[in-house]
## 1
Amino acid sequence: MELRQLQYFVRVARLQHVTKAAEELHVAQSAVSRQIHRLEEELGIRLFMQRGRNVQLTPVGQLFLRRAEALLGDLDRAVMEIHEFLDPEVGEIRLGFPHSLGIHLVPQVVAAFRKLHPNVKFRFRQGMYPSLIRDVVDAEVDIAFISPFPDKNEQVTGEVVLTEELFAILPDSHRLAKNDSIQLSELKEETFVLFDAGYSLRPIVMEACRQAGFTPNIGFEGEEAGTIRGLVAAGMGVSLLPEMAMYETSSMMPAVVKIREPHVTRTIGLIRRSGEKLPLVVQMFHAFMIDFFKHQYKSL
């Protein structure tokens, strides 16, 4: 079995098309077909079934794909680790983070790191809370920002780097918009604009409202902080957002009011796989971030 056969097999499996795979690999279609055929002969199984112009993995082909992807991934990481051992300044960092941190925090910390290590490359992957943990566990990323920080998960380890306060956001015309601070219970009769289910800020807001003695009346739901800010600014309701989400991206901005009671916060942490040593370049970045949030990070 040759490495080339595995590479061709994985590319065909991902694209479900031999010709497209050959084009991406910059080889003749016949060469790809020949290597796939030899691989099937060596394994004694059929990896693909023909479906019109496309190909589809057989059940055993799907099993083999998972193993082949893992093997090629391990090989890529081994090569990368060797290069990083020779010179970690030219390594690559695979960083995961939620969408809410992509506007301000991640660009800020990466830019600061790149000033010291200009040749280090980054590969970014955004996701929601469950997918970020899965990406770390499955080694799709080396390290990830996550919020809230998972207190109990044996598969990942890490530390809280930041605790951020949440504020009430209100339409400018709202009766409480000019107040320096409010109690959350003062909003119990309002319509709330919240993140969709599955976004980590939603349960934080729901729990804060429960502590304040009410269940919020949810009138609108969204997937982006900018959408929620815009709906509130347009008078569609009220919401709670962290300070970082107040970064001004449009002319329509709501009023921001501090919440006295309860004190609502979210934790932002860094997670990595448990029981594994980080590549040297990622160790450098991790140490930098710990120091950055202790001494350099400035909130909005």
Note: Residues 94-300 form a domain with the D-Maltodextrin-Binding Protein; domain 2 fold (CATH 3.40.190.290).
## 2
Amino acid sequence: MDWADLSERHLRSFWMAVTVGSVRGAADRLDVEPSVVSRHIQRLQLQLGVRLLERRGRGVKPTEAAALLLEFCETRKAQEEQLLVRLGDMGKTLRGRVHIVGGEGFIPDLMTWALCEFGRQHPGVDITLEQAGVRDLVAMVAQDKAHVGIAYCIEPSPPVEAVVSRRKPVCMIVAPNHPLARAKQPVSLQDAARYPIAQMAAGFGLQQAVSRAAAAAKVVIADRLVTNSLTSLREFAALGLGVSFMSAQSAAADVAAGRLVVLPTTSRVLNGMRVHVLIRSGRFQSRAVREVIGFLARKSAMWEVAV
């Protein structure tokens, strides 16, 4: 059998069913009837002479043979993308697609930099900007689902690497009438732990940073609020409910409005936190992606906090 005989539509239905875990889910994504997806997969199985999917409850599970076919699909997809990238790079006008993923606190800057400044200079480049927690963000970059990631409070590890890193300490934020707001010196975690604490949920860099800092200081932090929203952290503190943690930049607008006070901490862990511009090591990058990476690396100097 010639691999060229494999139908692109059949492969797409198979890939989507494996990706979402069900035939119905694949049909919804592809905007076709479930029977169409099932028929495509059945034809692939007949053509290849192997079973590809097993039913598990309401979903499907890929077989060992399916794992090989999935690898083939992803390799071919990557090769096709690389071909289009190389062809696009031959032109004088910068063109292409760049997918950026960042944490909530960086979206406003990324909107201004990538969509406004860079976008006006290079209208032929399409930017996709997505928000995610640090765990999902790193996975997206590692799995080539995003070209560039902006991550806070992590230590990059292969296959992900930092193009540039900027020091950006994690601070405490409280309402102006909170007892800690009168502190003249950096505040310890021991002092903060006497008050209700609001934190980001597990999977976010801020939560991981505060947990590491608390362990290093041998402090037990009892969370009053756990959230996946920086807005909720700011409101918790602004309403006088307790102490939240984030960078000074993330609270700057509320500080300017007189709703919050930013307090530096005595924690070496929190003071050493950094923001990284991430890519996957070894991935071929188009000229458009390289230009965006360089642009963000230069602009990220604005996030740097002097030692």
Note: The mean pLDDT is 91.
## 3
Amino acid sequence: MGGIFLISKPKITHVHPKKRLGQHFLRRKEIAEKIVDSLQATDKDTVVEVGAGTGELTRLIIKQAGRVVAVEVDETCFPTLQVLADLNHNLELFLDDVRKLDLADYREALVLGNLPYHLSGEILFWLLGQRKYWQRAVLTVQAEFAARLVAEVGSHDYSALSVVSQTFLEVEKLFDIPSSAFVPPPKVKSTTIRIKPLEGVELPVSEDRFIKFVRACFTHRRKRLANNLKMMGIPTPDKLLEELGHSPTVRPQELSAHDYVKLINAAR
């Protein structure tokens, strides 16, 4: 099992952010406090922190939550996190890739983290796959990524990611964070979001099949949706769309998440 790391006489060490890991360490305490407070954790909660880094959020959340599982893959961060774990009985370390963590071991968990920009999508889909095991999450992501999650139907940012996230999640944009709050400063803006799994989601197919279907529908965003459906081997897509109350010329970004659920049901 991942997460086992032993070090003799651990001590806090300076860590240089690694470009290959997409590391940008938050260095503004007032912003870190705002992120942690947005999770609304209590001493009855278990919090899984994704990408603990050098412990900026960890130091704060261990004062609020009853149990904290800090997840980090960068070995140079391990000594600092180990010092924190030695000093705080409610802090556990999982020193490995977060996607190897089984949230079934932490039922009803809260999730916290400043996500590496290049892995935000993968981590979000990891959370989607385990959403019955967590209650809510507060995540800091690239502003553009956050905009796509909450985008309205027909808008420039509306995409397959928008459809999938709005099918399974309640997404709320909380606040933006300036690049100057991080070391090194990223070239893009950051946004903190809060997400919660939606209850009672019913699909006529498996979740994996639905997600692949939505992605395929957006293969050629600027073309008619009927063209994309035809490429998937769906017969008479124009007629199918008309039967569902849509124009045959409708484009992928003009259907809501609910529309896509009805579409895949009719296309089976």
Note: The first helix runs from residue 29 to 39.
